[in-house]
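Q: Could you fold this chain for me?
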Amino acid sequence: MGKITGEDRVYLEDYAYTYLKGIKREKHGLPVRAALYGHAFRRENKNFYLIYGASCVMEELEYGRDQEEIKKMFFDSYDLIGYVNIYERQEITEGKDGCYLFYESNEAMLNYMLVCYERRNRADARIWESKMETKSNAGLFRRLLQNILLGCAVIIAAASIAAIGDYSGMYGFTFTAARALQDTE
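A: Sure. Below is the predicted structure, expressed as structure tokens.
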């Protein structure tokens, strides 16, 4: 959209403003390119832009969607009126340079924000599950190794106990063990 001239007026709906402010904060200093949806018209030598929706271009591209698809899914009753780059230090100040906030029922932007929120929660959950799975796999391996060693000890103990009660069995066990040692040398 660029810088607003003294003749232009931008009216930004509150949900769209909240979304833009949130993605600016999330991107940690990176410039954010956002698509803007709404209506643009000219009256009495002034341009008016009513912005009802916004979407982060890069985030949507990561999910395989372009701005036209987002428009069809959420903002079908609005026009794609332009793009804006938002920088970390840039503030959208009401009344400054012809930009004003307004409050109106905006189900389209609310639905889009809910989808974005759910997407972020799923991504956060996958990261957490991955970390837990890594820890779980290490613990699982450790428990498996402990169980194998415990099983070997039980088998040796059982064989020893059985051999003690039977002298010929014990002699056969020691003879077999001695022969196995000789074969490995």
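A (continued): The two ends are 83 Å apart (CA to CA).
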